[in-house]
Amino acid sequence: xxxxxQTPSHQVTQMGQEVILRxxxxxxxLYFYWYxxxxxxxxxxxxxxxxxxxxxxxxxxxxxxSVERPDGSNFTLKIRSTKLEDSAMYxxxxxxxxxxxxxxxxxxxxxxxxx
Amino acid sequence: xxSVTQMEGPVTLSEEAFLTxxxxxxxxxxxxxxxxxxxxxxxxxxxxxxxxxDDKGSNKGFEATYRKETTSFHxxxxxxxxxxxxxxxxxxxxxxxxxxTALIFGKGTTxxxxx
Lengths: 115, 115
Prior knowledge:
By secondary structure, chain A is mainly β.
């Protein structure tokens, strides 16, 4: 069964460093998402991406964040200068092409630890 | 804005006990409602969903009914197993809201089932 994959599973970085989190969505999906979950808190929406551009973003997704689909398979989240409060689990998700089919399929997540 | 409230955990039950996890929502449009489950060390998996009022979603013995009059989507299972131990998230997605495709999650409820 197709699944969303994410790498790495755990990333440790120093404050101020750039990180890139990688996701491979399900191959025929067209809508892509990033969410994050700070330890002990709810899962929060960051950004959605469709047709090679951001379709919506939350207030969390500030200028330090960017997303890219560099080729036909990968979908990346970049944090330019990490802060301690960026430490969280980051989930990628994708959705099938039918706009009325709003089920999202999630990857296993990347745990980001900022020291 | 749209929001989801679910009961705080942890919920601790013995095997074969009855499970209820409460979830209520606030939405301005016509949301679809979801329950996602996160097993230890894994990503979010869709457990069940309902797309309109009075729909009942069901899967793996779990059920939830979309109640528009009480804005609720409570998760139930008649007889839990140890393997049901996980974190359960209630979520909504409002297709007709301008911020429509993002999933809005509750905080999650940890279920622990002992034999």
